[in-house]
Design a protein that fits this description.
Largest sheet: 2 strands, antiparallel
Helix content: 55-70%
Strand order of the largest sheet: 1-2
Radius of gyration: 16 Å
Number of domains: 1
Length: about 150
């Protein structure tokens, strides 16, 4: 698996480089530095989390690597929702969030792991944290009840 990781990352970066042109918005925006910072942080966190120590159980190792991969896609989609202006890409980002959360849950079930906490599918970015904890999608949680914050 590790030998394919550089190829996969290169493909992701190559596609990402063409997204602005595909969206018809090749001119840099004022939001671009913030978007690039968040996107880079999501990619760095994802790649670090995907570097697991093999357990000897191919299925569990696959899930252990794919969960952060899917979470990275969620974080990148949330950054597009925060900073992007193209409505078509924003809708795609919303779909990515929902799809990736569902796939994480399905993979966990497949190997007998508990499901992630139930949350409403985030389609808009969460406000900056002010206390409490975040669930796996980045939604702000109420510190006293661990329910989504209002």
């Amino acid at each position: 698996m590790p030998r394919f990781r550089p190829l996969a990352c290169g493909l992701i970066l190559a596609v990402g480089a063409f997204l602005p042109a595909l969206a018809g918005d090749a001119a840099p925006s004022d939001n671009e530095p913030a978007f690039l910072k968040e996107d880079d942080a999501a990619m760095t966190k994802m790649m670090a989390a995907m570097a697991i120590k093999p357990t000897g159980d191919v299925d569990r190792d696959f899930v252990a690597m794919m969960e952060p991969h899917h979470q990275g896609a969620i974080e990148m989609a949330k950054a597009v929702l925060r900073y992007g202006k193209n409505e078509q890409l924003r809708r795609i980002a919303q779909e990515i969030i929902v799809d990736q959360l569902q796939e994480i849950a399905a993979m966990r079930l497949a190997v007998g792991e508990p499901l992630p906490p139930a949350i409403a599918s985030p389609t808009q970015p969460a406000p900056a944290p002010t206390g409490g904890t975040m669930d796996m999608s980045g939604m702000q949680m109420n510190p006293s009840t661990q329910e989504p914050a209002q």
